[in-house]
Amino acid sequence: MWPITQPSLEVKQLVHRFFTLVDTKSEEIGQIIADEIFTQDGLMVTANAMFQGAAGKVKFPDILLDVVH
What we know:
Strand order of the largest sheet: 1-2
Shape: globular
Strand content: 5-15%
Largest sheet: 2 strands, antiparallel
Distance between the termini: 28 Å
Low-confidence stretches: none
């Protein structure tokens, strides 16, 4: 369910940073996303895969970038 209230400026900046990073064509992007965006114990579920913890976050851009680019 989408939040009823407006997201805070911090949340908006984090989402913007995430999409900016995803659009970057760099081999280091997975590590940057893992370090700057996600928590160490986070879980991300996509239509094609599930990624858990920081190690999973490092792997996910490879799969995601195949779809985006």
